[in-house]
Design a protein that fits this description.
The chain is an all-alpha fold. Among the domains are: 204-274, Tetratricopeptide repeat domain (Serine Threonine Protein Phosphatase 5, Tetratricopeptide repeat, Alpha Horseshoe), CATH 1.25.40; 647-723, Alpha Horseshoe (Serine Threonine Protein Phosphatase 5, Tetratricopeptide repeat), CATH 1.25.40; 906-999, Tetratricopeptide repeat domain (Serine Threonine Protein Phosphatase 5, Tetratricopeptide repeat), CATH 1.25.40. 75% of the residues lie in helices and 0% in strands. The protein has 53 helices and no strands. α23 packs parallel to α25 (462-478) and α30 packs antiparallel against α31. TPR repeats lie at residues 314-347, 428-461, 505-538, 544-577, 616-649, 653-686. Keywords: Repeat, TPR repeat.
Length: 999
């Protein structure tokens, strides 16, 4: 409560005095007499001149002491700053002076004038009041009493003020006022009211007396009288400095009487006129605004109230939550209810806040950091007899199904000893959802385990159980376990109630691929046809791809015309990715002896799809078509292109053989020999090199120059093994059979024996590759890497692609990313299989990212993303790495499209980080509204990757800090601090921002 004391100027006289100085030469006695006369007349300047002159001429010690006394008094009366020092110096000089009581009184009065009340009390106590004259005694009593009041000795002060009130003249009314004030301050309100009422007739005390009368009525909860006194004060004293406080008690009084309009009018004026309004009044004003529907104003008031840890703050948070709800700001409402629920000053408020907090978690699907699933369960534990219990029980099961913090939900369900059917239904769905999360994050074994658990629960939730079969099939397919995948897809198709729609159609497509991979072409054909019949979206890449697979199945059953029709359909549906369709169509034309049509198709593929992996195949088949047309020149040109443009391709080796044969048949033996030698020299150890060497022998025989052949073979040294001994062959084949049978232990022993017996044998490269494969399977990576290096150094190209792939994979697993990057680049240059090409691009992208080679990472990501059939997981990863590379290269605007795409699925770690990065880029560009929208969407959709959600909270706080909205910033940071369980750098980020907010 604000306490205002009467200004001293009303009761304390000034020390003003004037005088005129005279400068004459007079006798010392005359100077003293005149100085004393002027002192009595209060002519202090003249007195000072006379006495100072006297002191210079006189030797009378008594008169000099008396002069010093008067000069010390003059210093006080003139109000000099150093008056107390002058007076104290006098006492030090004349400790036995007869004026000691008066001097002590003056010293005390000097400190009093400077509001040094503790010092004043000390010096007043050094003076004996009875030794002062009557006027000084009354002044002493007032000043001493006032000093005691200021130092907290109210009872003692009241005694002196009572004496002044009774016998005083100058300070009679002042004494009465301070007696009343002390009664007011010590709770003797009725006594105070009597005196204040009498003083209302005294002009100098009327304002303060009316003011304290209003305060007393307010304290006594006599709101009618408070209002009457308060309104009179505002009317009679419109400019009083007390008016802010008057409006405060008026607003409170009107509030308690139910007049909220007048309460708002007075309290709002009080708040605007006060630098630091009281929290309780802000709370009442907030309640009035809330009740009148002014929710934004209510939020402002309650937001200023929550500065302390007490019951008022708890209540204010509850109202804040309700206000935010009215404003449809559920996130801030949730945090306000959470804050109210964290404290226990008022159990009823805590209960209501906890319920509302839990309900908002449920309604907004706010994932938070572990509290979303268990919040209702905790509520029931804390408030078992709550009026909300029935509703909470109903919501609890629903929460299990709607929250995305499935692991916390599952942990909570596992604690229930006797789960109901509804809880088990929820558990089955949660296990399924966890499985899809693991699948999305490419944790296939973990996904399969979760789907197994969902399926094993039985028929509580048929939809979740059937969908678990589908996604377990997807997981098996990704692992290459096609028979298991096919079984799950069939079960899904048989059991699902939804016999139409995207997943049902896709199951046929996926099942078709399972059969296709197992070379069960008739079954595959049936499923792919079922898929295209029921798929409604003809723009999907899978739709066009299904026609390619239909064509492949028809091709296998030699239904060439129908296969060609399917390839044409696929090319029409997806022209940008029709290279395979065009190639297969050309190949079929060749089988049907339409060689010119085949050449035209292959030319189209080379022209329209220059980056297709089928270009080398197309050129080779074009050459073969020219051979069938007996166009040697055209064939030679095609084969030469294959060799020059794709020297590492298998087709280049085959083209070399075809070129040699072509020249030999055209009776150009020298050119034929050169072509065969090129194959032997460029691809030593390959099957084609062996064929070329065999055919070369025929060429030299035709030239009748066997010596030249022998000389050439001898020049090759041991790089080509042509003549294989029977023992060499039999020893190797026995070991190879063991390896192919999967008996790795026995195979390793036999292959090692083979290499010991034939260290430079014809099959040494094969043996090293198989031994490397065994070591790799046993995770003996150093040994495997050495063996694969031996394969590569041998010059035998048969296993070059796979040996390079395994070597790169080992270097990647051993985190030797710089070496792995080089190996993946080598693999990219020689790879022919789609799997190895994709693995090379993926490896290059990842290793470039890890080694900080952002441009290489970006280029590799671009290469990967050209594949329209890239899996969703790799597509997301490539976009993520490309976006990160753009950001690192300070081209953040180019990262936006990728971040926008992958941030749509925050179940993956890439999607979660992308969501945060997208908001961060918007914030960096000062697009706060966009950043806030992304983060709110992030909070609403949730993610299992809580670190990035926490970073999102911190970024939200940064946004609000930049907008000077410290309240919301503090709310998000506090919520994060209370709920985030990680042991990383998040805690430091929170503390850093909270510290800045405190400052």
């Amino acid at each position: 409560m604000k306490r205002i004391l009467i200004p001293l100027c009303l009761v304390v006289g000034s020390h003003a005095a004037t005088g005129q100085r005279s400068h004459q030469f007079e006798s010392p006695e005359r100077l003293f007499v005149e100085g004393k006369e002027m002192f009595v007349l209060r002519n202090y300047p003249g007195c000072t001149d006379k006495l100072e002159a006297f002191k210079k001429q006189s030797t009378d010690a008594d008169l000099i002491q008396e002069s010093d006394y008067m000069l010390a008094c003059v210093a006080f009366e003139q109000g000099k700053e150093n008056a107390s020092e002058v007076l104290k110096e006098f006492m030090d000089k004349y400790p036995d002076t007869r004026h000691s009581d008066e001097i002590h009184f003056l010293i005390a009065s000097a400190h009093f004038d400077h509001k040094e009340f503790e010092k004043a009390v000390f010096w007043f106590n050094q003076s004996t009041i009875e030794m002062l004259n009557p006027s000084q005694q009354e002044t002493y009593s007032f000043r001493y009493a006032y000093s005691l009041l200021q130092t907290g000795e109210m009872d003692k002060a009241r005694g002196y003020f009572t004496r002044l009130k009774q016998i005083g003249t100058k300070y009679n009314d002042a004494g009465a006022y301070y007696v009343a004030y002390i009664d007011y301050a010590t709770g003797k309100y009725n006594n105070a009211l009597v005196e204040f009422d009498r003083l209302k007739d005294k002009p100098e005390y009327a304002l303060q007396s009316s003011y304290y009368t209003a305060q007393i009525y307010f304290i006594q909860k006599k709101y009618d009288r408070t209002i009457a006194e308060g309104e009179a004060l505002l009317k009679n004293y419109p400019h009083s400095e007390n008016n802010a406080e008057v409006r405060r008690i008026l607003g409170n009084s009107y509030y308690h009487q139910g007049n909220q309009d007048k309460a708002i009018a007075n309290l709002s004026k009080y708040v605007s006129d006060t630098d630091a309004p009281l929290r309780g009044d802000l709370y009442i004003l907030g309640v009035c605004y809330f009740n009148k529907g002014s929710f934004n104003s209510a939020v402002d008031c309650f937001g200023q109230t929550v500065r302390e840890q007490d019951a008022l703050t708890q209540n204010a948070y509850l109202y804040l939550g309700q206000s935010y709800l009215k404003l449809n700001d559920k996130n801030n409402a949730r945090m306000a209810f959470e804050s109210a629920a964290k404290t226990s000053f008022d159990k009823q408020v805590k209960e209501a806040a906890t319920y509302n907090y839990a309900l908002l978690i449920h309604q907004t699907s706010f994932t938070g950091f572990g509290e979303s699933v268990t919040i209702f369960e905790n509520f029931l534990n804390e408030f078992p007899n709550s009026v909300y219990s029935d509703k909470v029980n109903d919501y609890l099961v629903e929460v299990y199904l709607t929250t995305k913090d499935y692991r916390s939900a599952l942990a909570s369900i596992e604690k229930i000893k006797r789960p109901s059917t509804k809880i088990l239904e929820a558990k089955q769905d949660i296990l399924f959802q966890l499985g899809t999360q693991s699948f999305t994050n490419v944790k296939l074994d973990e996904a399969i385990d979760l789907f197994n658990r969902a399926i094993s629960l039985g028929s509580y939730n048929l939809e979740a159980r059937n969908d678990a079969y589908f996604w377990r099939g997807e997981s098996y397919y990704r692992k290459g376990e096609f028979a298991s995948a096919a079984s799950d897809y069939r079960t899904y198709l048989n059991n699902t109630q939804a016999k139409s729609g995207e997943m049902y159609a896709l199951a046929h497509y996926n099942l078709g691929y399972c059969y296709f991979k197992q070379q069960q072409y008739a079954d595959a054909l049936s499923r792919f046809r079922s898929y295209v019949d029921m798929e409604s979206n003809r723009q999907l890449p899978t739709y066009a791809d299904a026609y390619n697979r239909i064509g492949d199945c028809l091709f296998q059953s030699r239904q060439f015309a129908q296969a060609e029709e399917s390839y044409s359909r696929s090319a029409t549906l997806q022209p940008s990715a029709a290279d395979y369709s065009v190639y297969q169509k050309g190949f079929l034309l060749g089988l049907q002896k339409d060689y010119r049509g085949k050449i035209s198709a292959m030319d189209r593929l080379v022209r329209e799809y220059p980056e297709s992996p089928y270009v080398d195949d197309a050129l080779f088949e074009k050459g073969r078509a020219y051979v069938m047309l007996e166009n040697s020149q055209g064939a030679a040109e095609a084969f030469e292109k294959v060799i020059s443009q794709f020297p590492q391709s298998t087709q280049a080796r085959k083209a070399g053989i075809q070129l040699g044969l072509l020249y030999f048949n055209d009776n150009q033996p020298e050119k034929a020999a050169a072509a065969y030698k090129k194959v032997v020299d460029n691809y030593p150890g390959s099957d084609e090199a062996k064929v070329a060497l065999q055919d070369l022998k025929s060429v030299y025989m035709d030239l009748n120059d066997i010596n030249a052949y022998a000389s050439y073979v001898n020049s090759l040294g041991g790089s080509v093994h042509f003549d294989v001994s029977e023992q060499d062959s039999l020893t190797y084949l026995a070991a190879e059979k063991l390896f192919m049978r999967g008996d790795n232990a026995a195979a390793k022993k036999s292959l090692t024996n083979y290499l010991q017996s034939f260290p430079k044998g014809a099959f040494s490269s094969n043996a090293n590759f198989y031994l490397g494969s065994i070591a790799f399977a046993n995770k003996q990576y150093d040994e495997a890497k050495q063996l694969f290096a031996s394969v590569l150094s041998s010059g035998d190209t048969k296993f070059a692609e796979n040996a390079t792939a395994r070597k790169a994979e080992i270097e990647y697993l051993q985190e030797d990313y710089a070496a792995a990057l080089l190996s993946f680049k080598q693999l990219h240059a020689i790879a022919e299989s789609k799997e190895n090409k994709e693995a090379a691009k993926l490896g290059m992208m990842r290793c470039a990212q890890y080694t900080g080679k952002q441009q290489d990472a970006l280029t590799a990501a671009d290469e990967l993303l050209k594949d329209p059939k890239l899996s969703p997981e790799l597509n997301a990863e490539a976009r993520y790495i490309r976006a990160k590379a753009y950001i690192a290269l300070k081209q953040a605007s180019k990262a936006l499209p990728d971040l926008q795409t992958i941030s749509k699925d925050t179940r993956t770690v890439h999607g979660a980080e992308a969501k945060y990065l997208l908001a961060q880029l918007y914030f960096n560009n000062k697009e706060n509204a966009k950043a806030e929208k992304e983060l709110m969407n992030f909070i609403e959709n949730g993610t299992p990757h809580q670190y990035w959600l926490a970073r999102g909270f911190i970024l939200l706080a940064d946004i609000y800090i930049s907008q000077n909205d410290d309240f919301q910033a503090r709310q998000y940071l506090t919520s994060l601090q209370n709920n985030y369980k990680g042991t990383d750098d998040i805690a430091g980020m929170i503390e850093n921002r909270l510290s800045k907010l405190k400052k």
